[in-house]
Amino acid sequence: MTLGLLFIAFIVFSVISVLGILLLFLTKDERKKKGIFYFLAVWGMLIAVFSATSQPSNYIVSQLIAWAFGFLSIAGLVVHYKAKVKARCYAAYLLVSASSILGVLHLFVL
Fold it and tell me: Where are the membrane-spanning stretches (predicted)?
């Protein structure tokens, strides 16, 4: 029963992450793109919290890796805030996307 619920959580987290990333890169409207970007940044941080708090207290390295994936979202927010050029916005999108994907992988696979 518990493994089934864990599998459902994995599917939900994965679908939200992949759908968010696809919408982030395929949406043309800048206002919608900004909203999706902020949602994915918060989503990446939320996944990092889930991942870090689900580890046993003596797995310090694994917890630090989970927090590092969350800080990728924060770095993406900072880069996006300071961006004057479109290329920096894409760098911020990549950081937030990496945070979401790597966070889900670390939470369920690694």
Answer: 6-26, 35-53, 59-79, 91-109
pLDDT score at 71: 94
**Tens-place pLDDT, residues 26-49:** 999 889 999 999 999 999 999 999
Cβ-Cβ contacts under 8 Å for 80 (sequence gap 6 or more): 37, 88, 89, 92, 93
Rg for the chain, CA atoms, rounded:
15
Cα 19 from chain centre: 12
Cα gap 21→44, rounded to integer Å:
11
User: What secondary structure, in 3-state letters, does the chain show?
Assistant: CHHHHHHHHHHHHHHHHHHHHHHHHHCCCHHHHHHHHHHHHHHHHHHHHHHHHCCCCCCHHHHHHHHHHHHHHHHHHHHHHHCCCHHHHHHHHHHHHHHHHHHHHHHHCC
